[in-house]
Structure prediction request, 161 residues.
Amino acid sequence: MNKFKTFILLLISFILQTSVFSKIDILGANVNILIPAIVAIGQYLGAKKGGYSGLIVGLVEDFLLTSFIGVRALSYYLIGYVVGSLKLPKDKLSGAITTIVASLFNFILVSLLYFILGKSQASILAYLPLGLLVEAILNGLVYMIYKKIVEKIMYIPTYRI
Prediction:
């Protein structure tokens, strides 16, 4: 049942990202709600589900929105897998900080891969100082919403000793 709920959560997040949140500009930055979703899923459901969730969402995003297939899929997969592997505490602060770091990692990895593949980097240099910081902070704030959603809808097994 968690697989179906994860699929629905990511599908709704992808639709909202592409239709609403990509159009909202806050201080030159657009919030990417897929990164907090992947961080929350990786944190609560583990490395395997977090990685696969990131891979699937990244591939869909690559196929529909970019010219290079696999760049965002790799980035999202690594984010989901690493967050799930680290076994971080499931509190708001550590999740928000993890999301901020994941947003910075996503920007660096995607920019580096696009540079290697030969895509123009003119707009990336203008985005670096303020836009990147604003996006990372916004993603950290959006994580708080996803944390509540994942806690409410997912079955997270707890074991007593």
